Amino acid sequence: GIQVEQSPPDLILQEGANSTLRCNFSDSVNNLQWFHQNPWGQLINLFYIPSGTKQNGRLSATTVATERYSLLYISSSQTTDSGVYFCAGWLSGGYNKLIFGAGTRLAVHP
Amino acid sequence: ETGVTQSPTHLIKTRGQQVTLRCSSQSGHNTVSWYQQALGQGPQFIFQYYREEENGRGNFPPRFSGLQFPNYSSELNVNALELDDSALYLCASSLGGTDTQYFGPGTRLTVL
Questions:
Q1: Which residue in A83, B43, B105, B110 has a CA-CA distance of 20 to 30 Å to B6?
Q2: How far is A39 from A47, CA to CA, in rounded Å?
Q3: Per the CB < 8 Å rule, is A96 touching B56?
Q4: Nearest CB to A96; choose among B42, B48, B103
């Protein structure tokens, strides 16, 4: 089955709007991370968030490990927030393998 | 910037050739992971090296091989290139196997 699933697949926002991105992950996946990939392909890690809530400026993330989901909140979006947001988790069982979701493609228009 | 560097930035090869991609990890990091990202998809884990030993591998054939050096830099080698190998190849370094991954800018490989 799908181990890391993201929604929505695409999102279009006006500058200044808020949004919530969701990541569901299976029992075999842990130590969730959120990344932003800019239009040039650079992946930037946003949060390493196995559980709980973290905030960094206009971005915050919450992982509820017991219910196998994580949320990424973007407030007061800016055009520079555009790109693809990925969540990823490590496959458990002593075998190091990072599993990525398919991503949420965000376009923020002025 | 993450401090992880990759070379070259772009590469064009023909089917059947061999290619070597290089990655220098962030200072202090002893683990390097490699990923393949096809257009419009999420990165796919190829393998991970920890202190010069392979420490995990994804669903890639043996013609994808790697190496990690004593300074923790790493190489990805792909033999007998196929058209489907065209992708962005990313490396990431970390302090440990499942810690936060810091990605390099990637190498874009085109196989003709």
A1: A83
A2: 19
A3: yes
A4: B48
